[in-house]
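Troubleshooting: if your tokenizer reports a length mismatch, compare your output against this known-good record of 171 residues.
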Amino acid sequence: QKADPRDAPSRVVAALLDVRTGEGGALRDSAVLANEGTPSCSAFDGELFVVATSLGFLVAWNLHTGDAPETNAHVSAENARAAVAAVALVPGAGDAPARVLSGGADRALMLWDKALRPLARLELGSPVTCLAAPGPRLAVAGTQDGSVEVVALGPPGDAEPDAAVAAAGTA
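Known-good structure output:
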């Protein structure tokens, strides 16, 4: 009987390496990515490193604190996980911290705080394929149908989650 490859131990390792020297190493608790889909995108701002997967799983490592990573799932309006194709770090402003923006196959943009607590959800007309967040109140999303959407984000200091988004559940 042939072994099922899904039963094999996972070798998932998230690592940061210096391009010039090759030095670096695995991130703490990178095994949280095991069995959560294929890493599909990532973002890094020098402090926060976020990886998202094909099964809608998000992991955020705060490299300044060295704390265990935060995790959550990009969920659709039907409360099912949706593949994440794009993630961006939204810069903070003043004392307000950076935020995380994810875009998925469910056509939704999800705005998160640094601990991956959902703050807001916006549905676009087509699955999201790429994201950029050039400023604390603005994001640009490319979609599968070829559209480019410019999105106004809430104020960076507004850390109160949308009640419907928070009720949608977390991983």
